[in-house]
Amino acid sequence: MNKLEGYFVDYNKELEKVRRHLRIAYTKLLMARRMVQDKRLRKNMLFASALIGSVMTTPEVMSAIYFKSSLSEVKKARKKLSKLAKHRDMDEVRRGLIQEVIKVLEDAEKCDYNMLTKKIMDAEGLLSHLSTLEEGIF
C-alpha cells in the first residue's frame, strides 16, 4: 500500500475494480449483440413490445441501451485508471502499463461492437499482466 495525500491506496484492489468495470462492459456488449442476433429473443421482444405498445422495448432500442451502458462502464474504468496513474508513489513500469491500458481504452465512444470488444479484451490482458507485477510473479 502506498500513501498519497492522506489516503492509503491498495493498487490490487483498485485494479480489481477496473477489471470489474471491464467485465461488466463486456457482459453488456454480449447482451446487446444477443438482442439483435438471437431470432427467438427478437421475436419475443417484438411480441411483448406490440402487447405493451411501447417502442422502447424493441430489440434495437434495448441493444442500443446496453451498448451505451457498456461504454459508460469503459469510461468508469478509464477514469479510475487515470486517477491511479497520477499517484506519485507508483513506479514507472506500473505507471507505463496503466497508461498503455488507458490508451487502449481511448476513443471507445467511436467504436463499433467488434472494436469495443477487442479493446476491452486487450485492456483485460494488460491488466492481467499488471496484476502479475503487483503480485511479484513477473
What would your notes on this structure say?
The chain has 138 residues and is mainly alpha-helical. Helices cover 76% and strands 4% of the residues. It has a two-stranded antiparallel sheet. A hairpin with a 2-residue loop joins strand 1 (2-4) and strand 2 (7-9). Helix 1 packs antiparallel against helix 5 (113-135). The relative contact order is 0.16.
**Overall tally of domains:** 1
Unreliably modeled segments: 1-6
The helicity comes to over 70%
> Quick one: how many beta strands?
2
Q: In percent terms, what proportion of residues is strand?
A: under 5%
Shape: elongated
**Biggest sheet: strand arrangement:** 1-2
Structural class: mainly alpha
Task: Output mean pLDDT.
Answer: 86
Number of helices: 5
Describe the largest sheet: 2 strands, antiparallel
Distance between the termini: 18 Å
Rg measurement, Å: 19 Å
- Give the topology string: H per helix, E per strand: EEHHHHH
Question: Could you outline the blueprint of secondary structure elements for this entry?
Answer:
Layout: E1 2-4, E2 7-9, H1 11-37, H2 39-52, H3 59-85, H4 92-105, H5 113-135
